[in-house]
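By way of example, we now present a protein record of this kind:
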Amino acid sequence: MKNDKNTLVNIDIPDSLDKSLKNLTDQPTAYIGNFISDVFELIFGKFHHKMEIRRIEYQHKVDEFKKNIQQKIEAIPPEKLIEPDFQTVSQAVENAQYCLFSEELQEMFANLIANSINIDYGDKLHPSFSEIIKQMSPLDAKILKEFIAPVGTSLKSIVDLQLKISDEHSSTLVFRDLYISDDISCPPEKSSVSIASLYRLGLITITPF
């Protein structure tokens, strides 16, 4: 077959396809397309922008977490350094990703990782500890920290709050196991939930009088 570069090739385009192609270049159709694109950018652009800001903030927290761990490791005397336990460290880092925006929980994870390579603490730690920290709230961490603080540094007590009805011998329990502290201010129901959570995790015991 002879090819002639000057030969014009005629292709029959179906009317429906020809109309669709024409609509793409029509000004009204182009305007509508641009309008839809602008609406998508207006709605989803804000979302992506917020996600990008959140991503930057999260990366900052990751860098802060790594720096915190490094500082704690550097503070350990060289003669007390031991080989890191991969299971403990890897699970702690993985679980910490959910808690980096809480200074209290981030600090607990950093201590766990640093102590895992310190001979004074290494044998006393367990990989499951990171799972326990992951289940804690920032308020849980604050309350637990106060419980292990030196005695006398602040007022600490756990009480049950009861409402006594006038002229009757009965009372109604309003809140159980409220935590009262000079340094922590929170709604009573939140402190009650935190105490229950710490008790469930086995971190505290409650002995009734």
Summary: The first strand starts at residue 156 and ends at 164.
